[in-house]
Design goal:
Elements lengths: L1 H21 L7 H15 L1
Amino acid sequence: MLSQCLRSVLQCTLENHFEGLVLQPMPEGAHEEVNDGVGTAVNSS
């Protein structure tokens, strides 16, 4: 139960962090690379 709570907090934090990044100018394709990295990190933990 606790791990599910921590997982949602982590996911929410990551989503907020990347929403902030989207507001900044980024090179084409950079956002996709960032998302792939997050997916890999989340799946491996």
